[in-house]
Design brief:
2 domains, globular, 7-stranded mixed β-sheet, about 280 residues, about 30% helix, 10 helices, binds 1-{4-[(3-aminopropyl)amino]butyl}guanidine, alpha/beta
Length: about 280
C-alpha cells in the first residue's frame, strides 16, 4: 500500500499526497519537517504537517509574491523577506538586478534542507552576495531594526505554531515602521474559501495601519481549497491601479523570465470574486 501524506491543515478536509521516497522526517528546533517525493509535484516540503513548497508548483506562489509588489513599486532597491527559508521568494526577487535582499527566517534547518534537497527552488540564491540571511525571530527583527525596505514579503506558514505571531497587529505595525515611503507589504494570507477568518483578520488589522489594503489571488495546486490570497498593504493607493502598459514596460525592462507572472495576470489577480469581497465586508 502506498503511504499517503494527509495534510489535515483545515478541519474536515484532507489532502492526500502519495508519498514516494522520504528524504527527511524529523523535528527541527521549531517545527516538524518532512521532505518527500511526489509523482506530479516533485519534491515536497511540509512543516507541521502542512505543505509549504513543492518543486513543481512553487513558481506560481513565488513569482506572484515577488514580481507583483516589485513591478508595482517600480524602483525597489531593498526587499525584506520574513520567512521564506526555502529561498524561492529570494530567488524570484534576485532576478531583478539592483535589488538587495534581507531574508529573516527563524529556522536555519529549513534553509539547509531546502538547499540540500530542493536546490532548484532557491536556484543559487543563498550564494548570491546580494542576499543577506539572518536567522532570528522575524517579529523581534522588525521591532528592533533601524533599517527600512521598499518591499516586505511575509512568506510565512499559516497562523498556527511559529507562524501565528506573523499575523498580529503588533507585527504588522512593526513592519510598517521599517517600510520606506511608498513601500509595499505583501503577505501569505491563506485560502479564503477555507480560511475566511484569517483573511478578515489581516484585512482589519492592516486596515488600521495603511490607506490601501487589499488582496490578490493565485491558485497554487498543492494548497488545498482553491485560490490563495496574498495580502497587499501600502499608503500609495496608485500602486494597485497601474495600467497594464506601465507594468509591461517595467517587466520588459527587468528582462525577467517567468512561467506564471505576466502584467495581465498581475492586474487580473487583484479582481476579487464576490465571495471574497463579502468576507471582507460582512458584519462581524
Ligand atoms: N508558505 C505558505 C504556506 C501555505 C500553506 N498552506 C497550505 N498548505 N494550504 C510557504 C513557504 C514557501 N516559501
Amino acid at each position: 500500500m502506498t503511504e499517503l501524506f494527509d495534510e489535515g491543515l483545515h478541519s474536515g478536509i484532507s489532502l492526500g499526497l502519495e508519498v514516494g521516497d522520504i528524504h527527511y522526517q524529523d523535528k527541527t528546533e521549531h517545527q516538524d519537517l518532512m521532505i518527500f517525493d511526489h509523482a506530479r509535484f516533485g519534491r515536497v516540503m511540509s512543516l507541521d504537517g502542512a505543505v509549504q513548497t513543492t518543486e513543481n508548483d512553487e513558481f506560481i506562489y513565488h513569482e506572484m509574491f515577488a514580481h507583483v509588489p516589485i513591478l508595482a513599486h517600480g524602483s525597489a532597491k531593498k526587499v525584506l523577506i520574513i520567512g521564506g527559508g526555502d529561498g524561492g521568494a529570494a530567488c524570484q526577487v534576485l532576478k531583478h538586478s539592483g535589488i538587495e535582499v534581507t531574508l529573516v527566517d527563524i529556522d536555519r534547518t529549513v534553509i539547509d534542507l531546502s538547499i540540500e534537497y530542493m536546490p532548484t527552488v532557491s536556484d543559487g540564491a543563498f550564494e548570491n552576495p546580494k542576499l543577506n540571511v539572518i536567522i532570528t525571530d522575524g517579529c523581534q527583527f522588525v521591532k528592533e531594526t533601524a533599517e527600512k525596505w521598499d518591499v516586505i514579503i511575509i512568506d510565512s506558514t499559516d497562523p498556527h505554531g511559529p507562524g501565528e505571531v506573523l499575523y498580529t497587529q503588533e507585527f504588522y505595525g512593526d513592519c510598517k515602521s521599517c517600510l520606506t515611503d511608498g513601500g509595499i507589504i505583501v503577505t501569505q494570507n491563506g485560502i479564503p474559501f477555507v480560511q475566511a477568518d484569517e483573511l478578515r483578520n489581516s484585512y482589519d488589522r492592516l486596515g488600521t495601519l495603511f490607506s490601501d489594503v487589499s488582496f490578490y489571488m493565485a491558485t497554487v495546486p498543492s494548497y488545498v481549497g482553491g485560490a490563495l490570497a496574498f495580502g497587499w498593504a501600502t499608503n500609495d493607493t496608485s500602486l494597485r491601479k497601474l495600467d497594464t502598459h506601465v507594468l509591461l514596460e517595467r517587466y520588459l525592462d527587468a528582462a525577467i523570465e517567468t512561467d506564471y507572472y505576466s502584467p495581465e495576470i498581475h492586474q487580473a489577480s487583484f479582481v476579487l470574486p464576490f465571495y471574497v469581497q463579502k468576507i471582507l465586508t460582512a458584519d462581524k
